[in-house]
Amino acid sequence: MSRDLCVHTWPCSYYLELEKRWVPGKLWLTSLSLKFLTDKTGDFLVSFPLADIIEIKKEASNFIFSSVTILEKDHVKHWFSSLQPSRNVVFHIIEHFWRELLLSQPGAAVEASSSTMTKGKELTGLMACSQKRLEDAARVLHYQGEQLDSITSSLDNMESDLDVADRLLKELESPSWWPFNFKLWKMPSDTNSRAGSSMASNKALGKEGIVIRIPAIISQGTESQVKPGRLTILVSGLEIHGPNSLLLHRFEREDVDDIKVHTHYEVSIRQRFIGKPDIAFRLISAKMPQVIPILEMQFSKKIEFLEDALMLRSTGTSSPAEKGYSVWQADPWEAEGSCLGC
C-alpha cells in the first residue's frame, strides 16, 4: 500500500519563472510530497518531496499579493499565491506535515522514492503496524480495567454507607423511652470504610489516564481561526489544547455526540446542545492515522467514516481530492516564516 496519501488540495496560482507568469491550478499536499496540478493541461507542473524543503515562508509578491514561498535543498524557490481559503491555512498545514515528517520519520522520503520494496519489507511494516495497534488496545483496556476497579470500590463504599444509614434510621425509630435513643455510636468499621472511600476517590481524581497525545491544526466551528495545538485522548474523554498549551475544551466521554472521519488525516468532533450553538472542532494531523483506531475503539457507536475515509479504509489508496477542499477558514495570524534552522 502506498504511503503517499493525499491530504489536501487548494486552488492557487504558481509563478512560472521561465515564462514570467502565474499559472492557475491546484496545490496538492500528500503525506510525503508537495505537487502543483495545472488547470489547463491537467499535468503536474511541480512535484518535490517534503523532506527536500529547507524553508517555508509567508511573503508578498511585488509587495501586493500574499504568497507562500518554499525553498528546496538545491535553492530552487517556489511561489504560490491566490491560495484559498486563505494563505495562513495553507501555510500552517504544510508546515505541520513538513515538521512532523522531519521530526518523526527522517527516512520517509527515501523510502517513498524507492520503487523496489520487497515483500518482506511490506510484511514487516504490516507487523509493526499491527503491533502498534495491539499496544494501543492493551493500553486502553488496562486503563478501563483500572476504572472498573475504581467503580467496584466505590460501589462497596456506597453499600457500607447504606448499611450505616439503615442502622441510624433504626435507632431513630426506636421507642422514646429507650435510654440510648439518640446516642449514635460511631463504629470503627464505618470510619475505616469512609477513609478508604476518600483515599480511593483521591487516587481516581489524581490519575488522568492519558492514552495518546498528538500535535494538530485546530479549527473551531466554521468561522474561527486556524491554530496549531494538540489533541489528547484520555480514558475519560478528550482534551483539545491550543497554542502555549492553552486548554480550549475538554470533552467527557458522554459529552461527545459524534465524531466524523473526513480523511485519513482529518476528523471533526461535536457536542450538541438545545437552545445554544454546538461545540465543534475540526482537527488535521500527520499522526491522525495512529489516533483513528483508538477513537473507533472508545467511541464505536458515535464515530462515522465519510466517503473519502471509507474509500481509504477499503482500498488503501489515496482518494482523489478534486471533489472539494475542506472548509478551513481564514487565520488572521501573521506569523513569521519558519525555516529549518529554527
TrEMBL record:
Q: Which GO terms describe its cellular component?
A: endomembrane system; perinuclear region of cytoplasm; plasma membrane; presynapse; SNARE complex
Please list which residues make up the signal peptide: none
Gene3D superfamilies reported for this sequence: 1.20.5.110, Pleckstrin-homology domain (PH domain)/Phosphotyrosine-binding domain (PTB)
Return one GO MF term: SNAP receptor activity
What protein is this chain from? Answer: Synaptosomal-associated protein 47
Q: Which family does it belong to?
A: Belongs to the SVAP1 family.
- T-SNARE coiled-coil homology domain residues are 136-172
Q: Name one GO biological process term.
A: synaptic vesicle fusion to presynaptic active zone membrane
- What organism is recorded for this protein? Pipistrellus kuhlii (Kuhl's pipistrelle)
Which UniProt keywords are given for this protein, alphabetically ordered? Coiled coil, Cytoplasm, Membrane, Repeat
What's the domain of life for this entry?
A: Eukaryota
Protein's cellular compartments? Cytoplasm, Perinuclear region; Endomembrane system
Record's CDD domains? SNARE_SNAP47N
